[in-house]
Specification:
- This is DUF6533 domain-containing protein.
- It is a single chain.
- This protein has eleven helices and four strands.
- The chain is mainly alpha-helical.
- The chain has one domain: Up-down Bundle (Rhopdopsin 7-helix transmembrane proteins), CATH 1.20.1070.
- The protein has a two-stranded parallel sheet with strand order 1-2. The chain has a two-stranded antiparallel ribbon with strand order 3-4.
- It is elongated and about 80 Å long.
- The termini are far apart.
Length: 342
């Protein structure tokens, strides 16, 4: 009986450690394969809210997962809320390696929620652009975002304040942060987040339906930007909804595995949030290159049909994005008038 208990606890410990390592590998791998795009499309652009959010989402998350892996693999831990004070008999290595389990749980929870919120803000900016800066849509998104984020933070705060942390369990030959007294309703933390993802996904799908109904495929040459925005938004929401739902189901199934899936929710929100920004800027660059090529080969024709200069300078979208979106808006209103006349 005791051997089975020890084996079960060790299985949870190993699964948690290597799940966090796997999630961190996803983030690091994405950083490496997109570094050239980041330098070309982000570093060389002018400063904006979008650029700031990109760097926070990319490097704050990377720093947080490095600290999490250090806590799980490289540090000794202690039960107390405050860090252990070294005594004359305590080695310097132990003094710097001691970790507070309570502090680690608060750190892990708050940084994870913050990383998800940053990625969601990025997606709200893109949806705001997709709806042609519609203030009603913005109000819906911001209000829902504030309510759901506050609800999730409140649930986490209440739960963590009552959680007991142990760095050592009898008969378990390893040091690890073991949470105890975790309430069964902790899975409710994911319900507000899933609710917000559902709202955003519905807005993206509805915008895609509107575009397809009025103008055909959003991926045709004149609407590539719209197509990329809709595609990335829908893919993000579907992947993140599945990730958050998995977290909820795991927490309902066995609360002992509550830390196993958390790392993947942070990793996927970080990676997909960054890809949304990079993909849109990549389309901008391609459109700018095509425009210059057409100007060189047909300067006379281009002089009769002026196009806006694609300067990357807007918090939500660049100038060329906004010009195309305004054109889409005019086309959409015209089509509505045609349908009304018919």
């Amino acid at each position: 009986m005791v051997s089975e208990l020890i084996s079960g606890v060790l299985s949870v410990v190993e699964t948690t450690k290597y799940a966090e390592l796997a999630a961190s590998t996803i983030i690091l791998f994405d950083h490496l394969i997109t570094l050239d795009d980041e330098v070309e499309l982000i570093w060389k652009s002018s400063w904006s809210i979008g650029k700031v959010l990109f760097f926070i989402n990319r490097y704050y998350t990377l720093a947080s997962v490095i600290i999490n892996n250090y806590a799980l693999f490289g540090a000794s831990v202690s039960d107390s809320v405050s860090a252990t004070i070294s005594s004359p008999h305590t080695s310097s290595a132990l003094m710097f390696d001691n970790y507070s389990c309570h502090r680690f749980f608060y750190w892990q929870g708050s940084t994870g929620l913050f990383a998800c919120m940053i990625a969601e803000i990025i997606l709200q900016m893109r949806l705001y652009a997709l709806y042609f800066l519609n203030r009603r849509v913005l109000a819906i998104m911001v209000t829902t975002f504030i309510l759901t984020s506050a609800s999730a933070a409140a649930i986490m705060g209440v739960v963590l304040s009552g959680v007991e942390a142990k760095s050592k369990i009898p008969f378990i030959p390893t040091t690890f942060c073991f949470p105890s007294n975790v309430p069964h309703y902790f899975y409710a933390f994911w319900i507000p987040i899933l609710t917000f993802e559902t709202v955003l996904c519905s807005l993206a799908l509805f915008r895609g339906y509107q575009t397809f109904r009025t103008s055909g495929s959003p991926f045709q040459s004149g609407q590539r930007l719209i197509g990329v925005l809709i595609r990335d938004s829908v893919v993000y929401f579907l992947v993140m909804f599945a990730t958050y739902l998995t977290n909820l189901l795991v927490w309902v199934w066995d609360i002992n595995y509550l830390e196993v899936t958390v790392g993947f929710s942070v990793a996927m929100s970080c990676v997909l949030g960054n890809r949304v920004i990079i993909n849109v800027r990549q389309v901008n660059k391609e459109m700018e290159t095509e425009k210059k090529s057409r100007e060189r080969t047909n300067s006379v024709k281009k002089s009769k049909i002026p196009e806006p200069e694609p300067v990357i300078d807007c918090d939500t979208l660049t100038d060329i994005e906004m010009a195309q979106l305004r054109t889409m808006r005019v086309d959409y209103e015209y089509l509505q008038e045609v349908e009304a006349d018919n």
